[in-house]
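Collaborator request, handled under Task 6.
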Amino acid sequence: MLLPMKIALVHELLTMRGGAERVLRILAEMFPEAPIYTLLYDEKKLSDWFPKERVRTSTIRPLLGSYNHHLYLRQFPRAVEAWDFSEFDLVISTSSAFAHGIITNGKPKHLCFVHSPARYLWDRTHDVLREASKGMFGFLKKHYLSHIFHKLRIWDSETADRPDKLLAASKIVKRRIELYWRRESDVVYPPIDNFWLQERKPINDQMQNPHYFLIVSSLVRYKRIDLAIEACNALKLHLKIIGEGPDAERLKKLAGPTIEFYGWRQNDELADLYTSAQATIFPGDEDFGLVPLESMACGTPVIAYRSGGALETMVEHVTGEFFDDSTAESLQKVLTTFDGKKYSRNACREQSKKFSREEFEKKIKDAVNTLMKNRG
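Structure tokens returned to the collaborator:
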């Protein structure tokens, strides 16, 4: 049982639906009275998950209606430090870049769930700068971002000791926290929602192209959806892509006639798509990744890049397969011989149950109680 207290939630960006937002949604349901602080809020996309009256935004206002976070990087540190949490007993933040840097000075206590230290500031910096250098004004964009990243990296390191307690979304995130922030953390895996664990049957016979592969993802470059498009183009395999994001137009230009884009879909329709797919492709290097768990919960195996959180959630040759290199050719090798009938739907479902919402909620409540018992 939780101690009575006034709680606030903090999440960097509410501009698209992704795994981090799903975790926040569960925290918001656990603490229904807690307001949600965020740097940017796209009401059109997220008001059904996070109602406007519950959201407290920063002073940053979108330029020309754009929610591309790179436009506001210089403003984010000052914006998160400007929030006043003195009316609360506890702040729970979910951080992928800036939320850990809020200022509480020990009153209230600060519990931070870390999806990862900002990867574009640390292990993905060179990849981001290489992409930025392409096209018109590429040199200027690269120079600008390099300068900003340097300043943000200093800020990130200096603010890493602000939270009173850190929870890491996976073992690999725990290692990054130790490496970049020199801090200890406890691993608490993001949960799969109970919705996904309902029994379902495939509906392939109702689909135009029943032997398809599936991607469910935010459409951003680092997710490496282009690898799956290139591989499926080459093999003329049907691929359905569910999601939205700033990389959508580029990906659509890469796609051949066997690739379909479905945008965002409600859970009921998404569950049908998961259940009837041959496999869900998970091509990026992810910190954790809820998509493989959702797919396995629907009885569908996963084909994932051999890196990151997928190594902690999947069982090779039982709930899916890995491809070894971050290339379309490596993915093609697996797709060429892949047979979805080899994988037990029950085995996939049983693996997903290990990452239940009940277990997540228990660990969050235990962390909160332990932290608050030690408050001064």
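The cover message to the collaborator said: "The chain has two domains: 7-117+160-191+356-373, 194-355. The radius of gyration is 21 Å. Please let us know whether this matches your experimental observations."
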